[in-house]
Write a structure and sequence with these properties.
By secondary structure, the protein is of the alpha/beta class. It folds into three domains: 167 residues, Adenylosuccinate Synthetase, subunit A, domain 1 (Adenylosuccinate Synthetase, Chain A, domain 1), CATH 3.40.440.10; 81 residues, Adenylosuccinate Synthetase, subunit A, domain 2 (Orthogonal Bundle); 162 residues, Adenylosuccinate Synthetase, subunit A, domain 3 (Adenylosuccinate Synthetase, Chain A, domain 3), CATH 3.90.170.10. Helices cover 31% and strands 20% of the residues. The strands form five sheets. The chain has a ten-stranded mixed beta sheet, sandwiched between helices. Strands 14, 16, 17 and 18 form a four-stranded mixed beta sheet that branches. The chain has a two-stranded antiparallel sheet with strand order 3-4. Helix 3 crosses helix 4.
Length: 429
């Protein structure tokens, strides 16, 4: 089922919520470690195993596999109290993650100050963030004001640095009429929870190099999705990190040439949470049908925020652009079963702007608001994919839908998820 690769990258090709956790849970069989390289508690990865539902925010979801080590890279911004809470919840459910985690001492920390700042910014700019403090934490990182995990071990000058940080942001709080958190309110929760993880803080980059040299296998787990990338996403409606291949080298401290397989996640329809452009977005009955009503855990509501996701037809122009840009080798297609029973389905194969077909994905919001999606319509299918275990057993229209995805992407679909469970996967040979 699995190809013998030493180092594979799995990441989403759209605006997140492509089903990364399900794919990683399938693909991490036989690996020795799973690594996160960016983002933080704004991620929400949901895995179903034997009717048990697990939601991961910072712990790599591969930790569910016995013997797999979870790595939290330097490119992450970590909410330490939330991380410890997540570790404890796993332990209460019989999964001892503490002895199988390594946290980079170089990773930056999200604090109550960052969450308060993001709440102020969101009221002013309405980006549609998760309010987890991710953006302000990355701002401090790149402005060289941040607090890193290693600073909680070497605490010299930390109180003074934190006091200076509060004073730097005081005008923001004064403008909003809000009282900033105190030094104690910022640092005490960090020191209190650091005692639980101090023994598992170290150099993730060295760990990865040593394991790859010894022949062990690594799976790299992306968070969010390509279209939320700070450089290549629908700016400014993006996250604050490099979510695709470009973030791996700096986030984990490895040579990207060591990655020998790049696997892109694509959902059978497109979704987005929060504000920002969405050319194939639907309203009405079809959108409600794709989203679900929230009665099932796998309906289209955010794992982190609970917000209903905006839904639309599959955007093949996004797919083709990102597969070319990031050198995707294979696709993992999710939620095919949601399209069962529709009279027809559509794929956007191109954008038109001012009556002309676009050759590259628009860089500005102004252009994206004016593009016209070019759709191809494919006949629907009735059979339930969840009852099918082989690709050649799929209905002809479903097989054509997948073939068209491959043509647009320029690479093969390797796996097709036909339900929420670990076993609901068709391997396309």
């Amino acid at each position: 089922m699995l190809e013998q690769c030493k180092c594979r990258l799995v990441f989403g090709l759209f605006w997140g919520d492509e089903g990364k956790a399900k794919a990683i849970d399938v693909l991490d069989e036989g690996v020795d470690a799973v690594a996160r390289y960016q983002g933080g508690a704004n991620a929400g990865h949901t895995v179903y195993v034997d009717d048990e539902r697990y939601v991961f925010h910072q712990v790599p979801s591969g930790i569910l596999r016995e013997g797999v080590t979870g790595l939290l890279g330097a490119g992450m911004v970590i909410d330490l109290p939330e991380l410890v809470s997540e570790i404890r919840d796993l332990h209460a459910r019989g999964i001892d993650a503490t002895g199988r985690l390594l946290i980079s001492s170089r990773a930056h920390l999200v604090t109550p100050l960052h969450r308060a700042l993001e709440a102020i910014d969101e009221k002013r700019f309405s980006i549609g963030t998760t309010l987890r403090g991710i953006g302000p934490a990355y701002t401090d990182k790149y402005s060289r004001r941040g607090i890193r995990v290693g600073d909680l071990i070497n605490t010299k000058y930390l109180s003074e640095r934190t006091r200076m940080l509060i004073e730097y942001y005081r005008p923001n709080f004064d403008f909003a009429g809000v009282t900033p958190p105190t030094v104690a309110e910022i640092l005490e929760p960090l020191f209190k929870t650091m005692v639980y993880v101090a023994d598992i803080v170290g150099e993730v980059s060295v760990y990865i190099q040593e394991m790859l040299r010894s022949g062990k296998r690594l799976l790299i787990e992306g968070a969010q999705g390509c279209m939320l990338d700070i450089d290549w996403g629908t700016y400014p409606y993006v996250t604050s990190s490099s979510t695709a291949l470009s973030g791996v080298a700096s986030g984990l401290g490895i040579d990207p040439r060591q990655i020998d397989k790049v696997i892109g996640l694509v959902k059978a329809f497109t979704t987005r949470v929060g504000n920002g452009p969405f050319p194939t977005e639907l309203d009405g009955e079809i959108a409600d049908r794709l989203r679900g009503n929230g009665s099932q855990d796998w309906d289209e509501f955010g794992s982190t925020t609970g917000r209903p996701r905006r839904c639309g037809w599959l955007d093949g122009f996004v797919l083709s652009s990102n597969c070319r840009r990031w050198g995707v080798d294979k696709l993992f297609l999710t939620k095919m079963d949601i399209l069962d029973g529709l009279d027809s389905v559509k794929i956007c194969s191109a954008y038109k702007l001012n009556g002309k077909i676009m050759r590259s994905y628009p860089a500005t919001i102004e252009e994206l608001e004016r593009v016209e999606p070019v759709y191809e319509e494919i006949g629907g299918w009735d059979a339930s994919d969840s009852s099918v275990t082989r690709f050649d057993e799929l209905p002809e229209n479903a097989k054509y839908f997948i073939k068209r995805i491959e043509q647009l992407a320029g690479c093969e679909v390797g796996w097709i998820s036909s339900g929420p469970k670990r076993t609901d996967v068709i391997v396309k040979k």
